[in-house]
Amino acid sequence: MAFEGLTGRLQNVFSKLRGKGKVSEDDVNEAMREVRLALLEADVNFKVVKEFVAKVKEKSIGKEVMDSFTPGMIIIDIVNKELTELMGGSQAKLAKANKGPTVIMMVGLQGAGKTTTSAKLAKLLQKQNSRPLLVAADIYRPAAIKQLEVLGEQIKVPVFSLGDKVSPVEIAKQGLQHAKDNGNDYLIVDTAGRLHIDEELMEELRQIHTEVNPDEVLLVVDAMTGQDAVNVADNFNTQLTLTGVVLTKLDGDTRGGAALSVKAVTGCPIKFAALGEKIDALEPFHPERMASRILGMGDMLSLIEKAQSNIDVEKAKEMERKMRNAEFTFDDFLEQMDQVKKLGPLDQIMDMIPGMGKMKQAKDLKVDDKQMGRIEAIVYSMTKQEKQHPEMIDHKRRKRIATGSGTNIAEVNRLIKQFDEMRRMMKQFSDMMGPKGPKGKAM
Ligand code: GDP
């Protein structure tokens, strides 16, 4: 996940500040020197770093901050606000056409993730009850059309294509007409990329632009390329006037320099972030939430949104009832793991929980997807009866389960012990709460 290094370093700087009852100007200067280094190491554009640090310093060396009881906290808050500003302040939403389909032109260099992102965006719009149409206008990259068609099929979004013998401008034009005729409210045009920016490519993009008059021109850039991505964005923007940037491969970007520089350098807001190869790994970009993640303060809002759109509320309620009544079985346990998995890779979810990111680093917690797979294998190796009545699983059965799941008896023991403890805790908790809330003293 992005920003790992940066988060760790910033947290060190701030824990030093927080430890102080009083913060002097020297302390602030020292902290800002470290923030500067941390940002440069994260590959943030040096001009951006300079301005950022100057702003934070100016706001931190005020009388109110120095004299406050919690100067460290106030400075973190200042950094949080400035980081948010740096990435655009508030969420830059997708434009919507007043009349007819909203036209989105996807542009970018080859390999940045344009085709994948086009399909991801279609899926996101479809989830919001829109009816997007994808247009395959990348006729040069071998298999780009096929790739879009396969993705379209997978998400049940229609793909308009005229093969690779018709000009991209013509494809885009006919695609738009097709959307109008079929009542599609979004048109996503996947254009051709190149290995490098060249005049021929820009000319073609300008012609498509003139033909379809897009509401959005979204540049797809690979976050892992850091400052190169920022330069590409700057270059495209001067030649084509972008309306937004999509950062891809943030899942593999440990530094985060592109995310932190692109808005400040180009003036173009980041509208979406892609965090994986899977088709639903695209999120609207929220600067304030991203700032919070960078500072290791988690991102509960995104987590709740993910939960709302992925988790079956009725099932969750039923699960809660079972837990309260200590009826929870290994079958329910499996189902719950399934629900959690729908939220995305475990380490990304952990990063959204305040404090978890840090704990994960410090303790080297092993709650990765592989570990989840082993736990599942153990449960799958239980018989139907064993899952429903875990108390019947004796030593002999445990040995059989370990062999069947390709794990070892220690792992099986551990899981059953944890499961028992969980059930006992739930029981105690629900006894304590009673049917109508906490017993005893008012809280
Ligand atoms: P295009 O040439 O710009 O159309 O690029 P593609 O859409 O074909 O993507 C290039 C490669 O990047 C593919 O292997 C994608 O699966 C991968 N990719 C795209 N977005 C992401 C992302 O957010 N995370 C990761 N890990 N891989 C991605």
TrEMBL record:
What Enzyme Commission number does this protein have?
3.6.5.4
Instruction: Give binding positions for GTP.
Output: 108-115, 190-194, 248-251
- At the top level, the lineage of the source is Bacteria
Keyword Cell wall biogenesis/degradation found: no
Residue stretches making up the SRP54-type proteins GTP-binding domain: 101-296
Q: Where does this polypeptide localize?
A: Cytoplasm
What does this protein do, in the record's words? Involved in targeting and insertion of nascent membrane proteins into the cytoplasmic membrane. Binds to the hydrophobic signal sequence of the ribosome-nascent chain (RNC) as it emerges from the ribosomes. The SRP-RNC complex is then targeted to the cytoplasmic membrane where it interacts with the SRP receptor FtsY.
Domains: entry comment: Composed of three domains: the N-terminal N domain, which is responsible for interactions with the ribosome, the central G domain, which binds GTP, and the C-terminal M domain, which binds the RNA and the signal sequence of the RNC.
What does the record note on quaternary structure? Part of the signal recognition particle protein translocation system, which is composed of SRP and FtsY.
- Protein name stated in the entry: Signal recognition particle protein
